[in-house]
Amino acid sequence: MKINSAVKLGTVATFAAVLLAACGSNSSSSTASKQTLNWMENSALPSMDASTATDVVSGETINNTGEGLLRIGKNSKTYPGVAKSYKVSKDGKTYTFNLRKSKWSNGDQVTAKDFVYAWQRTVNPKTASQYAYMYAPVKNANAIINKKKAVSTLGIKAEGNYKVVVTLTKATSYFPSLAASPMFFPQNKSVVQKYGKKYATNAQDNVYNGPFKLTYWTGTSDNWSMSKNSSYWNAKNVKLKKINFKTMKDPQTALSQYQSGKLDATYLSGQQPKNYKNSKQYIERKSASTFYIELNEKKDSMMKNKKARQALSLAVNRNQFVNKVLQDGSTTAKGLVSTGLASYKGKDFNTDAAVPSATSQDLTKAKKLWKEALKETGRSSYSLTLMADDTPAGKNITEFVQSQWAKLPGLKVTNSNLPFKTRLARSQSGDFDAVVSAWGADFPDPISFLSLFTSGNSYNNGRWSSKAYDKYIAAATGKDANNTAARWSDMVNAQKTILNDQGIIPIYQQGKAQLVKSNVKGLTYFPTGANWDFSTAYISK
């Protein structure tokens, strides 16, 4: 899932000792009787359309206002959602979900047809969903996406109102996690058709079947609110009555609001984590997300040069960035796939798939390779623009990398910090030289990262391409799908391929430093997917 760099990248700031003392305060505008949670976000909510949303803020909000066949909980495990139970065929290719009786927020029944409609809408080429590729395990999905088969042939059917039968192309061990992800949530056809282009562009032109419903969001507002959904089948166990989300791009402003009781939780960055680590309210959360730099190989011959890409990577001191700038539990990236996401025979994926030279600094070698790249492309100098978000955090990462790349002979770097939506649009259209990108795993499997960089994938913004890489991914998702050892080997070789070719420049794995009021209980956080589930949270007395 795409991540706004503001969610994580640190901003260096210093705070007076009085602020340190204030951290111990439990004051909050939330009370046990009101059960209102005031929550900080680093960027505004871009979309509420489960078929087209791609970022983590949208995913988090959709995850709390909607519900799929299954739900994701602690340790990224799945448990019953709209489906009260399900069975899997012996060959692992057919899933039969038995639905409970549940309702949309407008009183309509949630039926099997709502899942069929939503899934077909997402894979329909006319919808232009960037997440359509996630449906690859479902029978005929790829053919539909490539306009070779009709949408109606997708491997999902409704048997009556309360039974969904899903047919896969092949057994897929992580399919239950997909079924619990926001892009697989049901959609109410009559509501989508009623609002047309306005559907899901604001709080009112939508309908919800999850623990909460969106009650305030204009589509462009920096703040939004969710209220308890009384129509939700498990509403009796949802304790929070309201959640107010506030976009805070400046960490000092967010900290001040936290201390004054206007926020119940705030993310920390810069010097803040170091200053507050001894507080009982301080929490470090590990995230299955990697930040990396993409280089536009389609736009310029220089970025097609492997030596140039390697030089840019070798010039960056990742240890300095995570230890001196972020200081929040983030770690240097060991590869594209985040460490701790998956293991086989007791070994973490990156133990097998790491390429140290692709994620470490060697300035002497970087300068040598850069000079060779300039000569091979017929240049004496080179200029590029590094793009990221326009937040203090986004500016911080561009300034740091700019200072590192400035050490390469004949290279001039200009920074371009843009609003999140603008940066995202330019990334997708290929209107950049180099861009800070990030991805958070949607489910606990390396393929969640690795599938992004196949040739022609919509998330492969730099247009890096490798036939060998494509072959490994095709094998992992095809002929070796049921062979655990072979599939693992395919994925290991795929990561080694993109790292050896420096198809991307991994920088760091995300850690989230946070202050949470002591009276906020029951928060469910998971490192993959949409991160937060507020349905179990409450305000204690």
UniProtKB/TrEMBL annotation:
<dbReference type="GO" id="GO:0015833">
    <property type="term" value="P:peptide transport"/>
</dbReference>
<dbReference type="GO" id="GO:0043190">
    <property type="term" value="C:ATP-binding cassette (ABC) transporter complex"/>
</dbReference>
<dbReference type="GO" id="GO:1904680">
    <property type="term" value="F:peptide transmembrane transporter activity"/>
</dbReference>
<dbReference type="InterPro" id="IPR030678">
    <property type="entry name" value="Peptide/Ni-bd"/>
</dbReference>
<keyword id="KW-0813">Transport</keyword>
<dbReference type="Pfam" id="PF00496">
    <property type="entry name" value="SBP_bac_5"/>
</dbReference>
<dbReference type="InterPro" id="IPR039424">
    <property type="entry name" value="SBP_5"/>
</dbReference>
<dbReference type="InterPro" id="IPR000914">
    <property type="entry name" value="SBP_5_dom"/>
</dbReference>
<protein>
    <submittedName>
        <fullName>ABC-type oligopeptide transport system periplasmic component</fullName>
    </submittedName>
</protein>
<comment type="similarity">
    <text>Belongs to the bacterial solute-binding protein 5 family.</text>
</comment>
<keyword id="KW-0653">Protein transport</keyword>
<dbReference type="GO" id="GO:0030288">
    <property type="term" value="C:outer membrane-bounded periplasmic space"/>
</dbReference>
<keyword id="KW-0732">Signal</keyword>
<keyword id="KW-0571">Peptide transport</keyword>
